Amino acid sequence: MTEATVRVMFVCLGNICRSPTAHGVFRHMVAEAGLDDRIEIASSGTGDWHIGKPPDQRAASAALKRQIDIDDLRAQQVTADDLRAFDYVLAMDADNLASLQTLYQATADARAEPSLFMRYSTAYRDQSVPDPYFGGEQGFERVLDMIEDASSGLLADIRQRWPDLD
Ligand code: 4NP
Q1: What is the pLDDT of residues 8-37, one digit of tens each?
Q2: Fold of domain 6-165
């Protein structure tokens, strides 16, 4: 049997709030499913302001309250090579998706067409994850609620596309 490695990248604007949260939540879910050697997870931002920085403290604290540790993550900017390498490139909001689509059009041999992460959600289907950066703590809780919901749907989609993953 061929060892399939599925690659998933979450993308937001700064890669310090929403996409590292998604990275951490999905990483936790994948580890609990025993699939951490089969599913590679990454996150990035469409912008370059925070490259090399750890997640926003408010995002890290909110995640830790749900037993998700994201302190090891460091911000990076999405590249054309990412679009060539990842099976899923999942945007947090419609603006991120528009930026990714522009990059996708300019990238030869891109692998997966970028899409909205919330396409995999049941409770928040096809919604944008609101940018929590300029808001209060409540915004970070909503980010986590939305991401937890869509993560289950994403894992189910992966299992459907790669039935021999386990
Ligand atoms: P993120 O949040 O895209 O969820 O990481 C933001 C982080 C930083 C900024 C905007 C959004 N910023 O303008 O610096």
Answers
A1: 999 999 999 999 999 999 999 999 999 999
A2: Rossmann fold (3.40.50)
83/103 Cα distance (integer angstroms): 8
Show the DSSP H helices in the chain as ranges. Answer: 18-32, 57-64, 80-85, 94-105, 137-161
Q: Is 17 a catalytic residue?
A: no
Q: Domains of the chain: which residue ranges?
A: 6-165
Task: List beta partners, residue 126.
Answer: none
Residue from 56, 82, 93, 131 carrying the catalytic annotation: 131
Asked if residue 160 lies in contact with residue 79, where contact means CB atoms within 8 angstroms, the answer is no
Mutate to test the pocket of ligand 1, among 18, 46, 49, 131 (most ligand atoms within 8 A of CB): 131
